[in-house]
Amino acid sequence: MRRMLLCALAAALCLGLAGCGAPPAPERAEDGADWSGDWVTVGGVMGVDTPEGMTARENNEALTAGGMYYATWSMGEGEPYTNADGDEATLYDAQIYLLLGGFQSEEEARDTLAQWQEMAEAQYVVDETSEETYNGRDFHIMTYTFDSAENPYANGASAFGTYQNYAVSAELACREEFGGDAGELLARFLDNCHYAMP
Prior knowledge:
By secondary structure, this protein is α+β, with helices and mostly antiparallel strands. The protein has three helices and twelve strands. The strands form three sheets. Strands 3-4-7-11-10-9-8 form a seven-stranded antiparallel beta sheet, with helices on both faces. A three-stranded antiparallel beta sheet has the order 1-2-12. It is globular, with a radius of gyration of 16 Å. It starts with a helix and ends with a strand.
């Protein structure tokens, strides 16, 4: 999961994005909701009303000078984990990774999103794909399993979409211990994502 996100960030850097830090959060979302101080604001254009049962973990508001933003949420108690390379991390029953990339044009955002989808399709054993709409935004949804014995996660789901000149990727990774449905949890998360007024 993190490897795909790092690849996406590296690809974005190679595109030579331009820009500065995230703009301030707006007062109102595209869907008419008041932008809440409790929401996790990502890149100044997305606000996530953290669903019940999830905990916001990280929010990196400008991973690159050009507008790549990354945030995570989790479910369950954290457990220390060390991979085969000796890297340490904390594992949760389920974890959502949100990547938002800002570009000069909508076309660049769509091209980058297509690259992210290709990376995901090459990395996972895809079980099912569909086209869905959550809170007014269209997403390509993939559910999959992890085929690597070294991966501590068993299955997951990803959503790929755009918002204006931004590429949006939300990825959910679940451990074997997670008793819920990955697709349903990802849908609940996406329904709680709000977007700034154009």
